């Protein structure tokens, strides 16, 4: 079988005395939606940070699309086709929804000062294309009536959607979503699940951190369970979610779930 | 009166260019540059040294001054790109003082040139041909042309994807970086561009005043530029122009108020700064976005044409 799209090999990361990741070896294969679950504090976000370059692993390797990416800066990793969203909205609040989306595409000619001077035609074409795609995405994430709303005025759920829409503008090889439906209006959750499914059938690869188990069941083809910085289970979603140790990890730490 | 008005408008124009360049760095990119006067000084000194000491013509001086200031902008952005905003601000203040103290303590071009003596007899283009009054008007037109050019440049860059990326890093690096934007490189370019434009203002000032010395470039001057940007409206380039008009008018008010109010000139001189300070406080309290707030580009109208639902 071909090499996995994303692979972490024995990744360790500690903050002072706290070991957040204790030898994590994860594989994400192309052609599906992979889930990453685990109780709060199990290291999911740290793993996301290590994969996306926002934190460097103490030990271990991260490989993406056939090359090592650990130690690269987040923007270089993003340019290789691995884009992430954040749990909380960090989007530029003063920029409108549409500006946020138009910001996202990579290799924009108009981001170079000299190119901007000498290639106005290329910039126009790119902007028109980006605008067209942005309207499609806005319709999908139901923000098309708020294109000119500052991102800071959106609801928490809408901010989540905006982040996902932004990431979709990039057309990444792998999209890492950090809790895409947390705080989202239940009626919109179905829509998001539908969008992700539709994109997946068009060949978009996903790695998703999510707490909502119904969504995980509906979305993920495979899941990996992280507990206290270690992988305790990995495999097809239905099988993994029935395992006793997985249930224990969740139930022991998360009351009321 | 005409002569004073010409002088005042020229000074307003030169400071408007400074305010525009700070607006590119702070208003658009969020860079709290507390050493902006250093670019002004490097432009002024760069062109002065080229024309007075080396003996080039003013055009070469202008290009040299602008490039020197732009290079300095990139230079201070390089080692400080990882600093957080407040630390970064202090480092720019320090960098500006280093530049000023360097020129204060270095004589370039002879014993009584440079250093604390400054430079006199800086060439004033076409002064001999036009005479004093003609030169004043010529220079005002020249400065006005450069104001228009600078305004056009920053306005156009703001509308480009480049400006959009600068606006994004203004509110934090995480999202732009996660989308593949090189935040550091964007910042370096904003500093170099802003530095070059501020350098242009310095060049224009040196050849207008015909004399420069290090006392002209103290940190207070940076804060005057800041007050223009804050008053006018950070992020709006028209605001930068409005701000420089108002602040320079107050700053030069001693000359036309001296006879009109029963306050002696010294007190009036000190009161100018009080007036600017009070104005800034009022603006921050009641118009936090300035007199001409930043404008948001609207896209809703592009929907029907582009939309596919």
TrEMBL record, chain A:
Record flagged with keyword Iron: no
Q: Which InterPro entries match?
A: AAA+_ATPase, ABC_AA/LPS_Transport, ABC_transporter-like_ATP-bd, ABC_transporter-like_CS, P-loop_NTPase
Quick check: keyword Metal-binding in the entry? no
What are the alphabetically sorted keywords of the record?
A: ATP-binding, Nucleotide-binding, Transport
List each copy of the ABC transporter domain by range: 6-253
Instruction: Report what the protein is called.
Output: ABC transporter domain-containing protein
Can you name the source organism?
A: Rhodovibrio sodomensis
From TrEMBL, chain B:
Tell me the domain of life.
Bacteria
Q: Which InterPro entries match?
A: ABC_transp_permease, LivM-like
Quick check: keyword Cell membrane in the entry? yes
Report membrane topology: Multi-pass membrane protein
Would the keyword Transmembrane helix turn up in this protein's UniProt record?
A: yes
Q: Which residues cross the membrane?
A: 6-24, 31-52, 58-78, 137-157, 190-211, 223-251, 271-292
Q: Where in the cell is it found?
A: Cell membrane
Cross-referenced Pfam families? BPD_transp_2
Keyword set, alphabetical order: Cell membrane, Membrane, Transmembrane, Transmembrane helix
Q: What is its main location?
A: membrane
- What is this protein identified as? Branched-chain amino acid ABC transporter permease
Organism for this UniProt entry: Rhodovibrio sodomensis
